[in-house]
DNA sequence: GACTGATGTCTACACCGTAGGTCTACGCAT
DNA sequence: ATGCGTAGACCTACGGTGTAGACATCAGTC
């Protein structure tokens, strides 16, 4: 039956995994591929190949490639859970921040999606899972006595910082990990000494970057500031 | 002569603007297109069409599409100037921050490039124009008496905040600007009331977002913190 | 059985990035 | 003048891409 047409062989990993193709399964596979090879290596055809399906079947579960990417971002962000009943809002925000960092480090290739996708879509049209953390944090903070405006403010401050931090941390790419000398390891020797004297001088400092510590320091400052400036009515 | 082949007509805006095609001219045109239609509408072929050249000529001035995108990001970032001789480092950092915001708002479609491109490239391989602000700020701060490590720290804090802020501010997309009611203007009525009660309640606050003020407030806090925590030896 | 809707498949189209080759024009040593 | 090297522009062609549109299959309901 079904002699394969002129296209490539349709079965790679598995012909038809077991049952139907669901959006969740599709997104999981897409996420896996993105984690492995980066965003722009993800194509509808490639994804279909990995799923053992026809490329066009994907369009039953995502209207678009854009929609698929939204789905991937949403999937990742669902790993972020906020306990909006926690009475210690500071501790809870700290926990959220750590979770977010962990997620970003686990899926570095998805981070561009996370920070970039919302720029194209009005808030209300964004995937619901993407808005969940916002709503939950608003709940947490109003529960703690903040006004809606202040709660929104705090959310923005936290995620602004978080996004900034993650973008900083993910830039730490080592060019030749096997090299022992910091200057060579980071490839800084390429930079002309006359043009970038300070930067070249910082090889050892750059090499010693500690993202986790950095996050904690930033959180200390930020949360202390938030607590002192706008203390909720108890 | 030269009856056009099966491809499209090669002359659109101008056949051969005036002289040779330079990298600068190419990048300027690319930036213009990105500003107008967004990043993923930019194609080598489209760019060539806009320049009135053959698509392949572009490869004389950019090895890659990736290289071209790097060039666009670099072009934009060159608008950012740091006066590293300024003795008032706080005022200078503030000025840099304001410039950066202005640039980001002028070229919103380039922001994804700005924040996303460095994630893929080791620091030393990034376009030089991209590293200029970093080097200059390091110069500014060491001039002011900071150690290299502290200077780097301050740079990171500033740009972390800046990136976070811009990503926040650019998310403020109004769905239907002509609508007067905030809830409808932002499209928030789509969100199910039971799932997003807090978010829906914040329509007026969301609508009143003021990016410039927000930036200043953040800068006040950040710069005050930096000044008090790590004051340079005078 | 007939109908309906969801799901999968096939074909086809317009477009993409770019490897490889060729044609032309110019600067420069001979 | 001659020849040569080189830089710029162009053409063709290949293998990919996202997805519209038509058709096929099947589950469940009347």
Automatic annotation (TrEMBL), chains A, B:
It comes from the Bacteria. One of its GO terms (molecular function) is DNA-binding transcription factor activity. Residues 1-11 have a biased composition (Polar residues). Residues 1-21 are annotated as: Disordered. Coiled coil: none annotated. SUPFAM superfamilies: Homeodomain-like, Tetracyclin repressor-like, C-terminal domain. GO terms for biological process: negative regulation of DNA-templated transcription. Residues 43-62 bind DNA. It holds the Pfam family TetR_N. Keywords: DNA-binding, Transcription, Transcription regulation. The keyword DNA-binding applies. InterPro entries: Homeodomain-like_sf, HTH-type_TetR-like_transc_reg, HTH_TetR, Repressor_TetR_C, Tet_transcr_reg_TetR-rel_C_sf. Residues 20-80 form the HTH tetR-type domain. This is DNA-binding transcriptional regulator, AcrR family. It comes from Streptacidiphilus jiangxiensis. The lineage of its organism: Bacteria, Bacillati, Actinomycetota, Actinomycetes, Kitasatosporales.
């Amino acid at each position: 039956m079904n002699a394969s047409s002129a296209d490539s062989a349709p079965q790679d990993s598995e012909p038809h995994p077991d049952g139907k193709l669901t959006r969740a399964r599709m997104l999981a596979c897409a996420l896996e591929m993105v984690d492995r090879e980066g965003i722009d290596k993800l194509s509808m055809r490639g994804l279909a190949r990995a799923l053992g399906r026809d490329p066009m079947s994907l369009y039953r579960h995502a209207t678009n490639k854009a929609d698929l990417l939204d789905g991937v971002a949403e999937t990742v962000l669902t790993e972020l859970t906020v306990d909006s009943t926690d009475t210690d809002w500071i501790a809870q925000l700290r926990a959220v921040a750590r979770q977010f960092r962990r997620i970003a480090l686990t899926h570095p290739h998805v981070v561009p999606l996370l920070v970039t996708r919302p720029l194209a879509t009005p808030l209300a049209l964004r995937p619901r899972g993407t808005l969940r953390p916002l709503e939950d944090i608003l709940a947490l903070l109003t529960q703690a006595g903040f006004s809606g405006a202040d709660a929104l403010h705090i959310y923005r401050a936290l995620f602004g910082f978080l996004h900034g931090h993650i973008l900083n941390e993910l830039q730490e790419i080592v060019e030749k990990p096997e090299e022992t000398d910091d200057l060579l390891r980071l490839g800084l020797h390429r930079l002309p000494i006359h043009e970038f004297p300070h930067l070249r001088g910082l090889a050892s400092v750059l090499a010693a970057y500690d993202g986790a510590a950095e996050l904690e320091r930033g959180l200390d400052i930020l949360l202390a500031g938030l607590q002192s400036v706008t203390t909720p009515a108890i």
